[in-house]
Amino acid sequence: MGSEPALEEEDLSPAEDPDADPLGGRVPAGRGAVLTRRGITLRVLLKDGLIEPGDSVLSIHYLGKRFVGDLLCDGKIRWVETGQLFNSPSAWATHCKKLINPAKKSGCGWASVKYRGQKLVQYKTSWLHKYQPAAETGLVSEGEEEELGEEEEEEEEGSRKTGSKSQLEPESSPPEKRGERKECVPVRYHTLGSRDSGRDPHTLVELTAFSAINRFQPFNVAMSSNVLLLLDFHCHLTRSEVVGYLGGRWDTNTQLLTVLRAFPCRSRLADRDSAPAVEEEICQNLFMRGLSLVGWYHSHPFSPPHPSLQDIDSQMDYQLKLQGSSNGFQPCLGLLCGPYSLGNQGLQSKITPFCVVPPPEQRPNDYGIPVEVEVSSVQDAFLTSDVLHEMMLLVEFYKWAPDLVRFTEPWNQEITFLDKLKGSLNGHAPKDQAYSQILEYVYNQLLTGQG
Asked: 313, 370 in Cβ contact below 8 A?
């Protein structure tokens, strides 16, 4: 991933600044001209000893997300995640915030960026106290004063989110039988209001249509039927929640996201020890197939396939990670599957594609808006050998699990859980009808030991 040219902002070149020293710093008051707050740069603060260069000493909190940067000796900022360089706090803050909220016009970097936990704007004030005590009043940088309140709200919201996540694994509930056999009723997004630490993170939220927020869906999606078959099979196997990832390609010219492969995670959501190995295997499989990570899937075994508050935050995280340092738009698709949702009396699972739109800028403490995404399913010609192999690996992984679905038991008064599974997978059948004989072998393996 190439580095983007450093963004220019605030800094004066030595030709324009007669008081600049050979290292790019400025001579403080008493040794040169009076500086306004806008004239005070990181180089000034470094030269006069108010701050020191260091790794991971700079941070930004915005809409619940955290960015970390290194402060270099020349006053530039290096974003830790990508190695990208920025010439000023405002340039870095604007770039990071636009990744989350493309409508963001400015970053107000000095009020947003913290140095060792303290806002940089406070170091500006300290510099003025020390070197220009008579000039500090009324010298607020352009735009700085009006955004200070907003940045404080964003900081408070970000501080509510604790804990760290691995590169791929979403923060989700442990694998106990959460909500099993209990129908969860989703709430409407507009009833949520601002983030509340006392709210249950497993609260389900109804999806909103793009038209309801006066937007068009910014990309099209075509999905292989084998992807749906494999993830649906995975979600049916256990009474606990599962997660997996989606590989495919993104065409910037046609704005088409093609989802070609599902990668089930053969690990428990709460098993942090095995997660790195699972992630590494998925990354290698993506690379070997020439695919990119384009999304993820997640199950709500006995609940409607609406995103929980945790799912919304996880989806926002994924969108940010897939965006990376790219200036162009890069979509990320989330899929929710409810194989045994009590509200669905049909055999076929309800699978819901969604993405998350950032909240309005004037309401930074609100949750992201979960929006339903329209997807076109493309019927594959046949069931591929790698999909069959993945199904057998899943059977082996869950074979002796205590939360394995007992497929010989009745799902309702008329059919068993195995009949339910077969009926759902038939909805993703390839054109080659020989697949049914192939799947019979899988089903027989699934029943081994269940009596």
From this structure: no
**Pair 75, 64: CB distance under 8 Å:** no
Please give the structure tokens belonging to residue 58: 């700079």
Tell me the CA end-to-end span of the chain in Å, nearest whole number: 53
User: For residue 98, with 0-12 CB atoms within 10 Å meaning exposed, 13-18 middle and 19 or more buried, which class applies?
Assistant: middle
DSSP 139-173: -PPTTHHHHHHHHHHHHHHHHH--S---SSPPP--
- Cβ atoms < 10 Å from Cβ of 290: 9
Give every strand in the sheet of 54-62, ordered side by side.
Answer: 85-86, 77-79, 65-71, 54-62, 113-115, 118-119
Q: How far apart are CA 300 and CA 25, in angstroms?
A: 57
Q: Is 278 in contact with 266 (CB distance < 8 Å)? A: yes
DSSP 347: S
Tens digit of pLDDT for each residue in 202-217? 999 999 999 999 999 9
Rounded to 5°, the CA angle 393-396-400 comes to 155
* Number of other residues whose CB lies within 10 A of the CB of residue 123: 19
The CA distance from 96 to 107, in Å, is: 8
Residue 194 pLDDT greater than 80, yes or no: yes
341 DSSP 8-state letter: -
Helix and strand element counts for the chain (H, E): 11, 14
Measured in whole angstroms, the distance separating CA 65 from the mean position of its chain's CA atoms is 9
Q: How far lies 154's CA from each of 239, 245, 318, 325, 343, in Å?
A: 37, 30, 20, 22, 38
Return all residues near 389 (Cβ < 8 A) that are at least 6 apart. Answer: none
Contact of 19 with 36, CB cutoff 8 Å: no
305 pLDDT band (50/70/90 cuts)? Answer: very high
Six token digits for residue 186? 């989703």
State how far the Cα of 426 lies from the Cα of 150, in Å rounded to an integer. 51
pTM above 0.90, yes or no: no
Q: What is the predicted pLDDT for the residue at 4? A: 40
In the sheet that holds 292-299, the strands lie side by side as: 369-372, 350-357, 333-338, 292-299, 243-251, 256-264, 220-224, 376-378
* 3-state DSSP assignment of residue 374: coil
